[in-house]
Amino acid sequence: MEVVCAHGENFINTPKARKKKDITAEVAVQEVQYLVTEKRLQQRLVEEADYKFTTELSAKTYNEKSLDNFVPRSESTFLEYAELISHKLVLFEVG
Questions:
Q1: CB–CB of 56/48 below 8 Å?
Q2: CA distance 46 to 63
Q3: Which domain of life is it from (predicted)?
């Protein structure tokens, strides 16, 4: 269905209508670009937080002695291992 203005021109194809249509399309593109940029920023922040958490977690694992990473090889290190076990079991004492 064509809409004709008073001058007999097609209303949709007037310069004013085309300009408004172009501006609307440009705003829509800018909104999409903004949303994509925001999503990328959020993803980057999540990845940085994950990386920080992972490095902190692995730093604790490798720098501290724990039952997970400690392998006794001598009598003295076996005593250290026994001490680590006893500290872990204290958490489960009923008292």
A1: no
A2: 26
A3: Eukaryota
Contact 65, 57 (CB under 8 A): no
Q: What is the pLDDT of residues 7-64, one digit of tens each?
A: 555 555 677 777 888 888 898 899 999 999 999 999 999 999 998 888 777 765 555 6
Backbone angles phi, psi at 4, to 5 degrees: -110, 130
| Whether 4 contacts 11, CB under 8 Å | yes
Q: What is the CA radius of gyration of the chain?
A: 34
CA dihedral of 80, 84, 89, 90, whole degrees rounded to 10: 90
How far apart CA 54 and CA 12 sit, in angstroms, is 58
How far is residue 91's CA from residue 8's CA, in Å, rounded to a whole number?
A: 88
Strands (E), 1-95: none
Condensed to tens digits (0 to 9), the pLDDT of residues 65-78 reads 777 777 888 999 99
